[in-house]
Design a protein that fits this description.
Structural Genomics Hypothetical 15.5 Kd Protein In mrcA-pckA Intergenic Region, Chain A; 3 domains; nine-stranded mixed β-sheet
């Protein structure tokens, strides 16, 4: 257990605790600080507080960083589509249907199990025992590019890029309906649904969420192919936003009926491209993930009736 105590000075008065922690300790991203606060490993004046607590002058902040637990997960020899790899990071084209990290009752067949076999001991431990190397995530039925860190320095730097919105993510989405605007921005906060706690929803009390959409193709049978870029990374953000404005992602059985003529299970959403600075060299990388065959075939079929 690594422990440190810090006294708040005038420069940081009224700053949120999670932001303050990530500012004064470059080894901790804001999300990591939030987890430590939630776990009671960060206290203010000896007491547990929320991440939103505003620090005041001379507050004594105690930070306990637990040792990373030994990973008690099985490496599994699962074939991966590697887009890019070096000593510090590996970028995978995650298939639709693969869960990113293990959870209770689902400890096998995940991306983590696969990369443990692929990378052996070369994975960061910052994510904790169930998320070695995982910097960000994709939903189970969202395919595409995902970054995995091979060491803690790379993980910290990538987490900071995420926090500062310096990683550009481009998605391809097939949606129901004809989107009239060629380009649009959806700026609506997202939070936990008040009617179903397993779902997210546009919620005035939620967190800021910004999604940019651009029409790529329109089809006569009432579908639109979109390019989607997100400024923020809220849970289910693209699916929630598109469903809310009346254009749900085809196959999405959480935020629409999921019924479609191709009998696709799960959303037709693909993380097509990532642009970011290499966390160690600083070189700008622009990496593309090939679209899954099922989605390519659907689009080819629809292109026969393009408007």
């Amino acid at each position: 257990m690594k422990m440190e105590k810090i006294i708040v000075n005038e420069e940081f008065i009224n700053k949120r605790l999670d932001s303050y922690i990530s500012d004064i300790n470059k080894e901790l991203s804001r999300s990591m600080a939030q987890k430590l606060i939630c776990d009671g490993e960060i206290k203010v004046n000896g007491k547990r507080v929320k991440s939103s607590y505003k620090v005041t002058l001379n507050d004594e902040i105690e930070i306990n960083i637990p040792q990373i637990k030994e990973i008690d997960l099985q490496a599994e020899d699962i074939k991966l589509d590697v887009i890019y790899e070096d000593d510090d990071i590996i970028v995978i084209n995650k298939p639709k249907g693969m869960v990113v990290h293990p959870a209770v009752g689902n400890t096998h067949g995940t991306l983590v199990n696969a990369i443990m076999a692929k990378c052996k001991d070369s994975l960061s431990g910052i994510g904790g025992e169930l998320r070695p190397g995982i910097v960000h995530r994709l939903d189970k039925n969202t395919s595409g590019a995902i970054i995995v860190a091979k060491n803690d320095k790379a993980h910290i730097n990538l987490s900071n890029e995420l926090k500062n919105h310096e990683i550009k993510k481009t998605y391809i989405a097939l949606v129901k309906g004809i989107v009239k605007e060629n380009e649009a921005t959806i700026d609506m906060p997202i939070g936990r649904s008040t009617s179903d706690r397993k779902k997210m929803a546009v919620n005035k009390k939620g967190k800021n969420a910004v999604t940019h959409i651009k029409v790529l193709k329109r089809f006569k049978s009432n579908y639109t192919l979109l390019q989607v870029n997100i400024e923020t990374g809220r849970t289910h953000q693209i699916r929630v936003h598109l469903s809310y404005i009346g254009y749900p992602v085809v196959g999405d059985d959480v935020y629409s009926s999921g019924k479609n003529k191709w009998q696709v299970e799960g959303q037709c959403l693909h993380a097509a491209k990532l642009e970011f600075k290499h966390p160690i060299t600083g070189k700008v990388l622009s990496l593309e993930a090939k679209m899954p065959e099922y989605l390519e075939n659907i689009i080819k079929e629809l292109e026969k009736e393009e408007i």
